[in-house]
Amino acid sequence: MAILKALILGIVGCVCFCSSVLAARELSDDLSMVARHESWMVQYGRVYKDDAEKFADLTNKEFKARKANKGYKPSMERMPTRFRYENVSFDALPATVDWRTKGAITPIKDQGQCGCCWAFSAVAATEGVVKLKTGKLISLSEQELVDCDVHGEDQGCEDDKCKSGTNGAATIKSYEDVPANNEGALMQAVASQPVSVAVDGGDMTFQFYKGGVMTGSCGTDLDHGIAAIGYGKTSDGTKYWLLKNSWGTTWGENGYLRMEKDIPDKKGMCGLAMEPSYPTA
């Protein structure tokens, strides 16, 4: 009996050890990729920073499961909508836009473990248009949207139901899509109001982003919703989009991200220009 017990404990210990080795190897591979990526940035003069601390306890596979690939469902077919900014002259557009300086952006929020980035993206754009319409910046509730989404497998995160009898803090009339794969049209929209956008946020470029203008390689499998709240140009002439994320203030530039603008790929960096839209009030 003692021999059998020792054998069982030995097998369990071996399994646990092997699991630990595999997990450590995955994490080591991720950190090695960060080092290779930083070397590549130095070689080609890239400027943005990586941070191996914010999600250092997650392999990229775990990161995707927790922070991306859930909570955002790309549109299968976009219905044609009006684009009210199509006649805005590019000559009339400001060189830089930052809706934070105009009091139209609430502080950075954190979606936590819930895959509800879509709600944070939509709310950020709505908070902006409500400010422009009423002159009041109101921090709206993402939870209200999450509770109202009862379709699909936990797409709303917890599959709660809408709360009846509540008084809404703000209302919108509708929404309009920005013409797809057109950074010029997106610029027209962002110059006029904050815009909800989707990106491929599941790779290590996003996972370990710390600061600067993101200029590395990135996919276009849309899996994360954020908000475009401005654009600008660095001192060395690099054009960028200013984006608000929902992963707290310890990620990126105090919760914000700058991503390269006007790249050769019409889809935009990380698919940024593929499915932008904005609320109307």
Automatic annotation (TrEMBL):
<dbReference type="InterPro" id="IPR000169">
    <property type="entry name" value="Pept_cys_AS"/>
</dbReference>
<dbReference type="GO" id="GO:0004197">
    <property type="term" value="F:cysteine-type endopeptidase activity"/>
</dbReference>
<dbReference type="InterPro" id="IPR038765">
    <property type="entry name" value="Papain-like_cys_pep_sf"/>
</dbReference>
<dbReference type="GO" id="GO:0051603">
    <property type="term" value="P:proteolysis involved in protein catabolic process"/>
</dbReference>
<dbReference type="InterPro" id="IPR025661">
    <property type="entry name" value="Pept_asp_AS"/>
</dbReference>
<dbReference type="Pfam" id="PF00112">
    <property type="entry name" value="Peptidase_C1"/>
</dbReference>
<feature type="domain" description="Peptidase C1A papain C-terminal">
    <location>
        <begin position="93"/>
        <end position="280"/>
    </location>
</feature>
<dbReference type="InterPro" id="IPR025660">
    <property type="entry name" value="Pept_his_AS"/>
</dbReference>
<dbReference type="InterPro" id="IPR000668">
    <property type="entry name" value="Peptidase_C1A_C"/>
</dbReference>
<feature type="signal peptide">
    <location>
        <begin position="1"/>
        <end position="23"/>
    </location>
</feature>
<dbReference type="GO" id="GO:0005764">
    <property type="term" value="C:lysosome"/>
</dbReference>
<protein>
    <recommendedName>
        <fullName>Peptidase C1A papain C-terminal domain-containing protein</fullName>
    </recommendedName>
</protein>
<dbReference type="GO" id="GO:0005615">
    <property type="term" value="C:extracellular space"/>
</dbReference>
<comment type="similarity">
    <text>Belongs to the peptidase C1 family.</text>
</comment>
<keyword id="KW-1015">Disulfide bond</keyword>
<dbReference type="InterPro" id="IPR013128">
    <property type="entry name" value="Peptidase_C1A"/>
</dbReference>
<keyword id="KW-0732">Signal</keyword>
<dbReference type="InterPro" id="IPR039417">
    <property type="entry name" value="Peptidase_C1A_papain-like"/>
</dbReference>
